[in-house]
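Subject: diguanylate cyclase structure
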Amino acid sequence: MLYLTDLIPGELENSEYKWLVSPRPHLGLLTRRRANTIVNRVRLLAFLFAVLTAAWSCVDLIVFPFDLWFNLALIRLVACTAFAGLLLYRPNGNLLDAYRAMALLFAIPTVFFVASYTLLGHHRLTGLSAAISVGYAFLPFVLLAGLSIFPLTMLETLFFAAPILFAQMIAGLMRWAGMDWPSFAGEFWLLVLISGVSTLAGMSQLGFMIGLVRQAVRDALTGALSRSGGEEVLELQCSIASRSGVKLSVAFVDLDHFKNINDQFGHEAGDTVLFNMAEIVFRNLRRGDMLIRWGGEEFLLVMPDTGLAHAEAALARLRKNGFGVTPGDTPVTASIGVAELVADHASDWKSLLEIADRRMYRAKQNGRDQVCSRDEEVATKQKLSPVPLAQTETSL
């Protein structure tokens, strides 16, 4: 990893350098943004290829025999139609769809290269025609250089470069008898070098994207997800929960009397309280839970695949560990409202958050330093009949 750290010094944290090699450890937010970027650049290249592929047919008409031009024009027409189809592709944040778009983008000119190379091999061209035909041999170089505009990992770049290198080998085998092998070997070695440069360029782009995404989605003070990053997390988790039918709980956490801390000890002391509180929560988060700084002293705790009963138990453990102490050595407490997507019949993440927010205010009205997981009218009805302890309002 030493070479990777020298590649993008200061941009990545030590744990993030492995993200340049494989997409497996990438966060969901990074994956979605990278997928959208890849598809948008695929569409840009598809537009350029469609225009240039059609325009170059005019050059072919001038320098090539009519029968050769006609066959090449048919191949170009098919390629332009395929490129135009890619322009209709719209990003949806799915990395597999982005891979599919890239595969189509590079498959079209690769097939065009092999087909045109075969056609040109059946004609003895001289002078200007021969010079123009040589230009077709440069298409693999253009394709491999084009990989450099995509934010790809090392494995991804090599995966897309391999078919192009293989196509070059196939084209060489087609001219086995009359092949100038020293020249072919030099061209192939140059293609390998371009692949290496494109790999480094793609990894460099990915490194900068990782740094930018981290800055955009992380709160600088606490290290929790920022509000903008949190909204993406909530939308994604609600979508997953709705499709799969699993539970999703969200806790709205508001520190009690935080304004008094700022007024009495200053904003710097208040920042220290927030930082310490986040550190404590991070140490006690369950695997898969996410902390979001919603604003000021307000935080959200997103708990995927968690029902109300389990959310209450997790929050009880969190409150037992405490949220730190004030500069005056008094315990920092919080009022917490929790809601669950299925049980509370929330239609989307916004309505789920509204329910949790309403219950957080009810926790404050009931004396602060407690968890509220039921609305008042529901709690009133439940008093009429016994219910299991895990389903009652938690007030610790």
